[in-house]
Every structure is written in C-alpha cells, then in structure tokens.
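Subject: Sanity check before I submit

Could someone independently write out the structure tokens for this chain? I want to compare against mine line by line before I put it in a report. The sequence has 68 residues.
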Amino acid sequence: MRKGLIGLVRMYQATRPYRPRVCRYYPSCSEYMIQAIEKYGVYTGVALGLRRIVRCNPLSIGGYDPVP
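---
Independent answer below. Compare away.
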C-alpha cells in the first residue's frame, strides 16, 4: 500500500511542467507527503500530508517546513 500511494504522488509530480507552482512551502506538499509516508507509514503519513495541504493556502506565510 505504501509503494502504491507513493507511486500515485510521483505520477502527480510528473504533471509539474503543466501546472503553475503554487506550493508556499519547502519541501513541496507532494514531496512532504512522500517523506511523511516513508517515515511514519501510510495512515499517519497521509494524515500529516493532508494537514500540510490544508495549511498551504494564500493566507499562509510558507517557508521551510520539514516532516516532524
């Protein structure tokens, strides 16, 4: 399941040349999701990734935000 989710995120990342850059954080939200899944497993990693995606909005300051 872990490899499948990471594969889906990698496929999303492959569409990068066709989308504008909107993530306000470093690493990007998709890379953060991959790192979180690798470090914490599927359930906690996806929860952390989704929380990060919700925080990535026009009102956010952004900046460097590594996986805890």
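---
OP: Matches mine. For the report I'm noting this point. Helices lie at 2-13, 29-40, 42-55.
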